[in-house]
Amino acid sequence: MSDPTVTPLNNSLESGVRAAIILNSLFPRSVDLQRLVDFDYLVVHSADVGGPDSLHTPTPLRAGELLVRRSVIQDGLMLMMSKGLIARVPTEDGIEFSASEGTNSFVESLGARYLLKLKERSAWVSESYGDSSKEGLAIIMRGFFDKWTSQFETTKEISRDSNE
User: Fold this and answer.
1) Is there a contact between 97 and 33 (Cβ–Cβ < 8 Å)?
2) Rg of the chain in Å (alpha carbons)
3) Cβ burial 69-80 (10 Å sphere, 16+ → b, else e)
4) What is residue 47's predicted lDDT score, i.e. its pLDDT?
5) Start-to-end Cα distance in the chain
6) Helices (H), the chain
């Protein structure tokens, strides 16, 4: 019998695998947690920025995912680090994360259709945004958040109007 409280998507295992694939596509570069969170969103919702079809179905208010994604990715990073698939890298700017020696072998062994698409999107994000400045990426991501908050306000107004 399945447990309805366990969600197969966006749990620490899925986010850890996505992080490993993203970091593998960025190798040898390392990134901080915020950049990894941003890249994770862009990999899943690539069509939002004119990229390939998104991996997940576009849903209204999806930019709100940015608010909860960070802690799930942190858990995923810890899981992958415990398996030696992600390395923590101390830098002058703080802690960053990178692929480890075993990451490429792990990623290359993944052959499910979803994971192949995930690898393609990760390569696209790495090529398109891997060298972007912190400020440039923040502007792009803020656009999603601003769009989400305006959509949320509209939804809230509709709800309030229907209750009157």
Assistant:
1) yes
2) 17
3) beebbbebbebb
4) 87
5) 43
6) 12-26, 33-44, 65-82, 103-108, 113-129, 134-163
